[in-house]
Amino acid sequence: MKIAHSVSKIFFGLTAVLAVAAAGYAVSAGLFIMRAEITAGEVVAYEESDRSIQFGTAPGGGMHFFPVVEYTAVGETRRLTADRGTQERRYAIGQQVMVRYLPDNPQRARIATLWGEWGAALVLLFTALLFGASALVFRFRFDES
């Protein structure tokens, strides 16, 4: 019973930390989107990286593909390599994608997708909600005092 109360306090603390981190990522993403210009880009290649992580005999991770996109900003053609890769090639070579970039720093750019722009904040928020729900369960279900 005391253990359940202690676990719930720890989980509430983790919930608060994760919620603050999610808010920070959301504010950062929102500010970037508000300041950014949007333009069309074209997928011209992929960078490949082996992100394998071995756990015993089970392989994990594997090859990840990072799209390389050419776009025009401030009158110059530029290249962007996505900072998040996937295990499959999400875009075809030559496919058009939307790119957001900062007009005062056009090298700071990212592919304009919901997950690419808001993904970190959403994952942190979902994790915070899981810890919050677990804290409530430990607090009211297992605490018999």
From TrEMBL:
- UniProt entry keywords in alphabetical sequence: Membrane, Transmembrane, Transmembrane helix
Ranges for domain DUF3592: 40-113
The record lists the membrane-crossing segments as 118-138
Q: Output the InterPro entries linked to this UniProt entry.
A: DUF3592
Name it.
Answer: DUF3592 domain-containing protein
> Which lineage?
Bacteria, Pseudomonadati, Spirochaetota, Spirochaetia, Spirochaetales
